[in-house]
Amino acid sequence: MIISKVLVVDDDQYVQNLYKLILEGLPVQSVLLANNGKEAKNVYVNSNHKPDIIIMDYRMPLMNGIEAMKEILQTDKKAKIVFASADPSVKSQAISLGASAFLSKPFDIQDLLQIVKNLIK
Amino acid sequence: MNNIFQISDLKNKRILLIGIFLCIFYWFFDTWLDFFIFRKNNTFFLALFPIEIHELWMRLFAVIFILIFSILANYFYITDKKIKLQLEQSKQQFKNIYDISPIGIVIIQDNQIKYVNQTALNYIGYTREEIKRENLKDLLKIIHPEDRDIIDEQLKKKKSEKPDQELNYQFRAIKKNGNIIWLDNYSKTIEFNGKPADLIVYIDITGRKQAEKKVEESEKKYRELFNNIISGLAIYRAVNGGQDFKIVDINLFGQKIENVKKEKVIGKKVSEVFSAIREFGLFDVFQRVWKTGKPEHHPAHFYDDEKVKGWRENYVYKLPSGEIVAVYDDVTTEKEHEQFLKASYEKINFYKDLLSHNMGNVLNNINASLQLLEKWDEDFQKSEKKSEVMNILREQVKLGSSLISDVRKLPSMEKERGKVDSLNVKDLIHSAINRTSKFFRGKNIEIEKIFPSDQLRVKGTKLLTKAFEKILMNSVIHNNSDPIRIWIEVKKVRIENDTLVRIEFKDNGIGISDDRKKMIFDKDYKIANRKGGLGIGLSLVREIINEYGGQIWVEDRISGQTSRGANFIVLLKKKS
After folding, report:
1. Which residues on chain A are in Cβ contact (under 8 Å) with B511?
2. Is the CB of B365 less than 8 angstroms away from the CB of A107?
3. Is A22's CB within 8 Å of B361's CB?
4. Which of A17, A20, A110, B26 is exposed most, by the fewest CB atoms within 10 A?
5. Residues of B in contact with A107 (CB under 8 A)
6. How far apart are CA A41 and CA A37, in angstroms?
7. How confident is the model over B351-397, as pLDDT tens digits?
8. Closest CA relative to residue B202, chosen from B285, B246, B149, B143
9. What is the tens place of the pLDDT at every residue in B252-273?
């Protein structure tokens, strides 16, 4: 099983770096980065080979994770989005809008890896 | 009319018959004189109907005279009777009218009641016979004891001053059944049967008095309510077709709220007494309510003129009389509390977001870093990666501590706001540089400063140091260059008529994309932008700069090259 692409959407560069390091534990060919929801949407829409998984933060400038997820799912209903937030109140909204999984921060990296593996299967 | 005919049929015929009888009697008496005494004629027949023409004419004239006299006597007799009858009828009619009149009428002459109509009797509940039996003095018992002095006084007045003057007074009478009625009394001296008499006319005003009493009680009740209600209440009357409104009344609480004296504002135009009423928005409400009659609520607005200021909430409605009523409350305390609560609530939310989100992310990053380090514990190949994660850990600890430090400082920073002073810009910047350098000890940071020759001073507080410190920290954090370079340039500029101090903070950091340039100063952005860890950073910087009449914005260090560093520009008012 090889994951060709993961899109990490977070405005925190440290978080982006950490995701990259965590995902090294999986056979990921490339990790794309976006600093906010708007960027994520553009990256997703404009890529010829769509990312297999999107790890989406909630609070971001310009466009938050929920809005970005809605727009991405409008263009591709099959997009797999892992929603990550420290705010548990957005969990039900994220799931009802089509998030494939919800990761509550602070999370265990094993949980993240397991979720990604499950989604690839 | 029937009576008149009857009289004329019986009595006047009698007079005529007497006349005819007298004629016949005279004729025979003359005949008797001529025949038996003077023996003028030979036969009785000739004596009865004399042939001497003068004799016959004399008798005929006498008879005609008697007849004419009797006819005239009859006529005058009838006329006199008729007049008397008509008078009697008229008198009766008036009596009837007086009796059914709603006005009581009494005529007193020589201390005796000469006439009293039925209405007057009905008022007091006595019969005519009972009244006639009573002595006039005894009749005074019908006057209420408390009002007898009024009657005495009025009677004395009449006797001593002008006997024929009209008197008018009101008193209470006690009816035969003990009930009390109010009478309005008019008295005048008239001629009755050729002598002066008192004509007294009464009107029962009990109903009116009761209504007046009710109105008085009601007015008293509403006046009490008006004056004791713990809301301001003012009544206005439109003048000049609703172009302005005059103050008709204002209650005690209203006077207290507006710091005015009733006697000084009654009759004055509202626009004169409350000069800011148009700006306040209430004047338009008055005009609308006056025109439409529909009540309006004027929610709490801030009123401010040279005499009074505060938050006022008004309810305006129109009275049936056309006057406008404003019921108002001074809600300044409530508003201040509301604003305080709102600010407190915002602060709580702000701290909640700051701690739950920003601190949550810091902890999440620390947690993830530690897990990675544990995972790579035995893996020597990951030594370079471990170093990277260790750096992340160190940064996160710093960011966390910076966040805690900011939160701790916020209350004292708020206190600082009041102490505005003239500050040396150079000192402020040096202080900010020192603090930033200490915070980022170990980082390779080079700062170049360009100051003008003269010492520039600005209006502000020590919070400005904090603001500059935040800008410098922002330049360091969002910077991947080595060395991190910051250029600070201070100069005096003139914009329109103001002399300002322009301070530029340029860096060789990652820069700020155009779509973020405005947002970074937004309050919401501070929460979302976690990279800096300065969750309360740039929005607070703008707030501080604005507080002292300054401005802040961000440009590219090199115009058009967003990724080659930012240039934060601050304008502050120069203090001489």
Report:
1. none
2. no
3. no
4. A110
5. 364, 367-368
6. 6
7. 777 777 778 888 889 999 999 999 888 776 777 888 889 988 988 88
8. B143
9. 999 999 889 999 999 999 999 9
Partner-chain contact B361 A15, CB within 8 Å: yes
DSSP label at residue B139: H
Closest C-alpha to A28, from A47, A51, A50: A51
Quote the pLDDT of residue B528: 43
Q: Which helix (H) or strand (E) holds A69?
A: helix A65-75
Q: CA-CA-CA-CA torsion for B504, B509, B510, B512, nearest 10 degrees?
A: -10
Residue B451 tokens read as: 């100051």
Name the minimum distance, in Å, from the CA of A60 to any CA of chain B: 5
In this prediction the pTM is 0.51
With CB atoms and an 8 Å threshold, state whether A62 touches B516: yes
With bands split at pLDDT 50, 70 and 90, how would you rate the model's confidence at A112?
A: very high
Q: Residue B405, SS3? A: helix
The whole-angstrom distance between residue B169's C-alpha and the CA centroid of its chain comes to 38
Pull the structure tokens for residue B202.
């009464």
CA distance B119 to B134: 18
Sign of the Cα torsion B271, B277, B278, B283 reads negative
Count CA atoms within 13 Å of residue B564 on its CB side. 5
In a mutational test of the A interface, the residue from B530, B534, B563 whose CB has the highest number of chain A CBs within 10 Å is: B530
Share of chain B above pLDDT 90, in %: 32
Distance, CA of B35 to chain centre: 116
Q: Select from B363, B369, B527 the Cβ nearest to the Cβ of A59.
A: B527
Handedness of CA B416, B421, B425, B426 (dihedral sign): negative
Which residues of chain B neighbour A17 with C-beta distances below 8 Å? Answer: 388, 392
CB contact, 8 Å: B357 with chain A? yes
Structure tokens at A103: 């990761």
Contact flag A18-B369 (C-beta cutoff 8 Å): yes
How do residues B430-472 score in pLDDT, each as one tens digit? 999 998 888 787 788 999 999 998 889 998 887 888 889 889 9
Mutation target vs A (from B521, B531, B534, B539; most A CBs, 10 A cutoff): B531
Chain A contact present for B529, CB below 8 A: yes
According to DSSP, the residues that pair with A33 across neighbouring strands are A8
CB-CB contact of A104 with A95 (8 Å): no
- The first and second tokens of residue A56, run together, are 């989406």
Contact B525 A60 (CB under 8 A): no
Any residues with CB less than 8 A from the CB of A31 and at least 6 apart, and which?
A5, A6, A7, A8, A19, A20, A23
Chain B residues closer than 8 Å to A108 by CB: 371
Question: Chain B residues with CB inside 8 Å of A59's CB?
Answer: 357, 527-528
Q: Which residue in the set A22, A24, A25 is minimally distant from B368, CB to CB?
A: A22
Q: Which two tokens stand for residue A49?
A: 């080979």
